[in-house]
Amino acid sequence: MATQTEQQRKATAQKAAATRRRNAAKRSQSARKAAATRAQAELSTAAAVQAQAERAVLIPVGAALVARDTLVEVAKPYVEGRESAEKELGKLQKRVSVNLRKFERRGNTARNRALREVKRTRTRFERELRQRRGKAVRTVKGVRKDAERQVKVTGREAQRQAEVLAQRVGALA
Questions:
Q1: Cα 11–17–19 angle (5° rounding)?
Q2: What is the pTM of this model?
Q3: 12 Cα distance to chain centroid
Q4: What is residue 173's predicted lDDT score, i.e. its pLDDT?
Q5: Do the beta carbons of residue 100 and residue 106 sit within 8 Å?
Q6: Up-side HSE of residue 19: CA atoms within 13 Å toward CB?
Q7: What pLDDT score does 126 carry?
């Protein structure tokens, strides 16, 4: 390893000292910035809490004022005088009669729809009943014809057997 001169050692030491100062300055600046961020966050949290507390107070106050304004507006025509009150009552009566007619029409429509549905269901049921009855009648006729045919065939067979039996008895005697 080569030995350094006095000047080289001083230069190296000065460089190292400058680097340490720069690093210390950076750390200090970083610490200041972190402290400022923490302080801002605490302020933001405090501001948020304050804003929520204000909302908790302002909302009911605003709702009460809106309710008061609405009440004043509703009562205004009745307080202003007889003519104004009569006019307002006329408007209300007209609105009530319009609504009643609307309800009547809607009820009438619902009734008619229900009656149509009942009639459709009844017609469908009657048609199905007629179809089943026709099918049953056809089945009964077919079974009756088969039974009559079978009775005829059985009767003829019994007659033939009786004749054969009579011949055999006659032959034995």
A1: 105
A2: 0.40
A3: 79
A4: 67
A5: no
A6: 6
A7: 97
Q: Among 91, 66, 90, 88, which residue's Cα sits nearest to residue 77?
A: 88
Q: Is residue 78 a contact partner of residue 84, using CB atoms and an 8 Å limit?
A: yes
Instruction: Give per-residue pLDDT as tens, 48-68.
Output: 788 888 888 888 888 988 888
The torsion region of residue 91 among left (phi > 0), alpha (psi -120 to 50) and beta comes to alpha
Residue appearing with tokens 């005697």: 173
What average pLDDT does the structure give for the chain? 89
Q: What are phi and psi of 129, to 5 degrees?
A: -65, -45
Q: What share of the chain is helix, strand, coil (3-state, %, to 5)?
A: 95, 0, 5
Most confident by average pLDDT, 27-31, 46-50, 87-91, 151-155 = 151-155
Alpha-carbon distance 136 to 132, whole Å?
6
Closest CA to 106 of 98, 117, 95: 98
Query: Which residue matches tokens 């605490």?
Result: 42
Round to whole Å and give the CA distance between 142 and 57.
91
Query: How far is the C-alpha of 152 from the C-alpha of 145, rounded, in Å?
Result: 11
What does the pLDDT read at residue 47?
A: 77
Alpha carbon 61 to chain centroid, angstroms: 35
Locate the domains of the chain by residue range.
37-80
Q: Which of 91, 87, 90 is nearest to 77 (CA)?
A: 87
pLDDT of the residue at 123? 97
